[in-house]
Specification:
The complex is a heterodimer.
Chain A (H helix, E strand, L loop, with lengths): L1 H20 L9 E10 L4 E11 L6 E7 L10 H9 L16 E13 L4 E9 L5 E2 L12 E10 L4 E11 L8 E3 L2 E4 L5 E2 L1 E3 L2 E3 L14 E10 L3 E4 L2 E7 L4 E11 L4 E4 L3 E8 L5 E8 L7 H18 L7 E5 L11 E3 L2 E3 L12 H11 L15 H20 L6 E3 L2 E3 L1 H10 L17 H23 L1 H15 L6 H12 L4 H7 L8 E10 L15 E9 L7 E7 L4 E6 L5 E8 L3 E6 L15 E3 L5 H22 L3
Parallel strand pairs in A: 1-14, 20-21, 21-23
Antiparallel strand pairs in A: 1-2, 2-8, 3-7, 3-11, 4-5, 4-8, 6-7, 9-10, 10-18, 12-13, 14-17, 15-18, 16-17, 19-20, 22-23, 24-25, 26-27, 27-30, 28-29, 28-31, 31-32
Helix pairs in contact in A: 3-4, 4-5, 5-7, 6-7, 7-8, 8-9
Chain B lengths: L1 H14 L1 H18 L1 H11 L6 H4 L2 E2 H9 L5 H32 L5 H42 L3 H35 L5 H14 L1 H28 L5 H36 L1 H4 L27
Classes of the chains: A alpha+beta, B mainly alpha.
Chain lengths: ~650, ~300
């Protein structure tokens, strides 16, 4: 009885009380990184020792481990460089030989310092040096010049449930800022800067090379990082600062701790201006928001802060709470644009410029987008190499929702002296150029070019989900996204998981939709081919019986593309009648007919403007009588432009 | 001197407003011609589509961008067409410069025949002056590129912005200087009936440099008036509702008209200035190297009646 009583006491009283003081991990912590790094601001290089403990939760013995060495992407002949030379895009390559865009990471020593069965750690009598056994591999393209992934065999396999501890001594040479990392004068953004182990996913190691059009994939765990910097540098990093000390030699060492994250980035600049702010989430937890900005960007401070607050609020309200205690928003230094627009756990980089007008919402947009990645990448940690649409795309959808809610549906990108641009239209423009090139399911590096990658993974996904709102309702889609977050946060779900979740929430099998929109390259384009009213009584033509005239109205809707979707039609008549009708959209065309005492004014499909995947919005409607106002307006501008250009040239005469 | 010249220039340009009318008319007609193809192409997409309200009620940049992406709208061809009409206007202005300057100089209403005779007579000289003006313009281009290059090396965006602003101001002043220099050269070509254009341009440079302050002040003041009209006009444009197509067009045409007026005002001011300069510095105004001094004298003014004899 007594022992039973003690057990009861332990289970129901002590453990919950202890647990109250110590939150359970949010993720399966597969990795624990301890990094001790010293940054040399003069040479923009870093020397570090990384101790990584990996827990084998794969259920299988592990014989070898793959690691990323991403800074080696900035070497001649690397896959990143070759791709940027041939495919172009926003993240430009390092350019010619011997330029400042060159970066590298060298492993000085790679050791196994401990192995265990998960209960106790068996330290080796002496660390096993495996440096000579490291082998560079190129799993994606076989490029022998790419040194961004290496594999190392273990002296003995790690049993399921066991763990292994590596000690890696390495040296980083940062490039002048390029593709989300590097320096610009004193500014440094250290991203992808340490040897990072691959992910055991779908029963195999998943460790891809650094590509032009792909981001990253890693396991959740803990990070404890010491960074030694010049004393006058102001820094920010993933997680929370836990210690800071001056070393007496002009440097100081800061310690950051982060839990349940899968990457670690940091930044420093003596010119940073720190702006502190906070947000209290719906659970009452306070999040410290730290904005690191620059003097020439102070005009954007309020805009950054409002966008961050607004995004935190909307995500909290719609999808779930932001669980971390910190969020660092980095405004990169002038000339370091390539460091902008990037996400790392609890750490985002935005971007602005001096004098950017209020109506240009790009600072807000980039802030919201990168914050959104805290959910779609940071917590729902999908594979960005193979399922890029699940992070960039879902994030583009939530960006559209949040920006529309915060800044207006028609003005969520631009609102400048009467010129407007909406998120939906902006996505439509990017997508319609590349509509039939690549499916969403393509590997990030397999798209035909950088434009196709952007237009498809970002824009098409947003349009797929916005269009889905027109099929199953906005509420259902939003609910599905919320479920997706709640169910899969701190895991590595797949695209099948996503589609299954939406099907479940929608209460219907949407395979027909996913097959066309996600797995296929089907193009959606329905048009109103013709819309006419003719007198049904021929006597009216001769001027008699006009009052009671009846008209036969015929509207033909044509499916131009190969994407099949139900079509909803709205027809307006000159007596004020409005008629709605539908068509399943399966055949190539469909004829609608009415006989009424009124003539047709206009016919429009997708009259609620929800099928944003439709690549041509102009042919979705027809008026009976032309309205030339827009044409006159545009041609008058064209005329003025020609006159002005003529005057400009004649100034030479 | 400058104050009187600006006023006289205005009177001259305004008294010969038929020239302004013609020039603006040609500018307008070429603009209209440039819209024929766009009207057909854009109209074929917009006129019957409800989507056009995004452009008639406001200006949805996305709708406009998607319109340009339509295969029905050949954007490249439209731009080329517009450029062609712009070049035509340049050629027209080049052609009639001699006529305009002759009319201003003689300050009388030339007949059509006289106007075009003067235009044709001076055309080759005007072409040579334009070709020579490309040299200093290229130098200004290089200076602009250097200033821009410097601004890109500055880490602080705010400082870089101000460097660019100063660069633009410098470029504008330099362009004004070049313009007034070559305007004086054109005036001399007509007033002195100069044939050697290189000599003429060099002489104009000497004359312009001697009176640089007053000449620049004349040009700058007229330019400032034009810039104020432009700024106020554009500000009003942003205040007009998006669906006020006719008002918007009228306002923009007024701006175009005002810019042309300002340019002709500058030319008229240059004529007035040169007339005064030649009176004050007869020797300096005439180039001693000019080979045909007989042609240099102005058309003699024959008084309507002889003055009454002095009483003895």
């Amino acid at each position: 009885m007594r022992s039973l009583g003690l057990t009861f006491f332990a289970i129901f009283i002590v453990i919950p009380v202890i647990s109250l003081g110590q939150q359970p991990p949010l993720s399966q912590r597969v990795v624990a990184y301890y990094i001790d790094a010293k940054y040399d601001a003069k040479s923009h290089s870093l020397d570090a020792v990384e101790t990584l403990t990996y827990r084998n939760l794969t259920g299988k013995p592990l014989f070898k481990f793959p690691f990323h060495l991403y800074l080696n992407a900035f070497q001649p002949g690397s896959t990143f460089n070759e791709e940027s030379r041939h495919r172009g895009g926003f993240r430009r390559g390092m350019g010619g030989e011997n330029n400042k865009g060159r970066g590298s990471i060298d492993i000085k020593q790679f050791e196994v310092v401990g192995m265990g069965d998960g209960k106790s750690r068996f330290n080796f009598p002496a660390p096993q040096n495996l440096t000579d056994k490291m082998k560079f591999v190129s799993p994606d393209d076989g490029n022998a010049n790419d040194r961004t992934v290496f594999e190392v065999p273990l002296p003995q396999p790690i049993a399921p449930g066991g763990e292994v501890t590596f000690r890696i001594t390495f040296h980083d040479q940062f490039p002048e800022v390029i593709a989300r990392t590097g320096y610009k004068n004193d500014f440094i953004l250290a991203g992808q800067w340490f040897p990072k182990v691959g992910v055991w996913w779908k029963g195999a190691w998943n460790c891809h090379q650094f590509h032009l059009t792909s981001e990253f994939f890693a396991d959740f765990g803990t990070f404890d990082v010491n960074i030694t910097l010049p004393e006058n540098f102001i820094e920010g990093a993933t997680g929370a600062k836990t210690a800071e000390k001056k070393n007496g030699d002009g440097t100081r060492t800061v310690t950051y701790h982060a839990e349940d994250v899968h990457d670690f980035a940091w930044t420093a600049d003596p010119k940073y201006i720190v702006m502190n702010d906070s947000f209290t989430n719906s659970a009452g937890n306070k999040i410290s928001i730290r904005l690191l900005t620059h003097a020439d960007h102070l005009g954007s401070t309020k805009r950054y802060q409002q966008a961050t607050q607004g995004s935190l609020k909307k995500f909290d309200e719609w999808y779930g709470q932001y669980p971390y205690s910190t969020l660092t928003v980095v405004d990169p230094a002038s000339g370091a644009d390539q460091a902008g627009g990037m996400e790392y756990p609890t750490f985002i980089t935005a971007g602005t410029s001096f004098g950017v007008p209020d109506g240009d919402l790009s600072p807000e947009l980039v802030t919201e987008h990168e914050f959104g990645h805290q959910y779609w990448y940071g917590m729902v940690a999908t594979n960005e190499f193979e399922d890029a649409w699940l992070d960039e795309g879902i994030n583009s959808y939530t960006e559209a929702k949040v920006m529309d809610a915060l800044y207006g549906k028609r003005t969520s990108v631009l609102n400048f002296h009467g010129a407007t641009l909406a998120e939906g239209t902006s996505n439509r423009i990017s997508y319609s150029r590349v509509a039939d090139l690549d499916p969403l399911t393509a590997n990030a590096w397999d798209y035909v070019n950088a434009g196709a990658y952007g237009g498809t993974t970002y824009s098409k996904t947003a349009l797929v989900l916005l269009t889905l709102e027109g099929v199953i309702g906005e509420e259902k889609v939003q609910q599905a996204i919320r479920t997706w977050f709640q169910r899969y946060r701190f895991t590595h779900p797949t695209e099948e998981d996503f589609m299954k979740t939406v099907n479940e929430v929608a209460g219907q099998d949407l395979t027909w939709y996913w097959d066309q929109a996600v797995k296929g390259t089907n193009v959606l384009d329905y048009r109103v081919m013709s819309a006419v009213s003719v007198n049904s009584d021929p006597t009216v033509r001769f001027g008699r019986n006009k009052k009671n005239a009846t008209y036969d109205t015929t509207v033909i809707v044509h499916r131009k593309g190969n994407f099949l979707l139900p079509v909803h039609l709205e027809v307006k008549f000159d007596n004020g009648d409005v008629v709605h009708d539908s068509w399943d959209g399966q055949a190539r065309w469909h004829r609608f007919q009415w006989t009424k005492n009124a003539k047709l004014v206009s016919a429009e499909i997708d009259y609620n403007h929800q099928l944003l995947l439709d690549t041509d919005a102009f042919n979705n409607s027809l008026r009976a009588e032309p309205d030339t106002r827009a044409t006159r307006k545009l041609t008058s501008y064209w005329m003025i432009l020609t006159q002005w250009l003529g005057q400009l040239l004649s100034w030479l005469a | 001197m400058a104050k009187g010249i600006v006023g006289r220039g205005w009177n001259l340009a305004w008294n010969h407003s038929y020239i302004l009318g013609w020039v603006f008319g040609v500018n307008l007609v070429l603009g209209i011609l440039a819209t024929i193809t766009p009207r057909i192409e854009i109209g074929s997409v917009l006129d019957k589509s409800l989507q056009s309200t995004n452009l008639s009620q406001g200006f949805d940049v996305g709708t406009f961008a998607m319109l340009l992406m339509k295969p029905d709208v050949s954007t490249g061809a439209l731009i080329r067409g517009s450029l062609s009409f712009s070049w035509l206007f340049f050629l027209f202005m080049l052609f009639i410069t001699g006529g305009i300057l002759t009319a201003y100089r003689e300050d009388r209403h030339l007949t059509t025949g006289e106007f075009f005779e003067a235009s044709g007579g001076y055309l080759w000289r005007m072409i040579r002056i334009v070709l020579l003006s490309l040299v200093p313009l290229a130098v200004i281009g290089v200076i602009g590129a250097i200033i821009y290059g410097i601004s890109t090396q500055i880490d602080n965006e705010q400082s870089a912005f101000y460097v660019r602003l100063v660069g633009i101001a410098i470029a504008v002043i330099l362009l004004l200087l070049v313009r007034l220099w070559f305007d004086v050269a054109q005036v001399r070509a007509v007033a002195q009936n100069e044939h050697g254009m290189f000599h003429n341009v060099m002489r104009a440079l000497v004359i312009s440099l001697k009176s640089l302050g007053s000449l620049l002040w004349i040009y700058l003041r007229i330019s400032i008036v034009a810039w104020i009209v432009l700024a106020v006009g554009l500000w009003l444009w942003t205040k007009l509702p998006g669906n006020q197509v006719a008002f918007t067009w009228l306002l923009l045409e007024f701006i175009m008209f005002a810019q042309l007026l300002a340019r002709l005002w500058q030319r008229a001011a240059a004529i007035s200035w040169y007339g005064q300069y030649a009176e004050e510095h007869p020797a300096a105004a005439v180039d001693f190297t000019t080979p045909h001094p007989a042609e240099l004298s102005e058309t003699p003014v024959i008084p309507d009646s002889l003055p009454p004899p002095e009483p003895s």
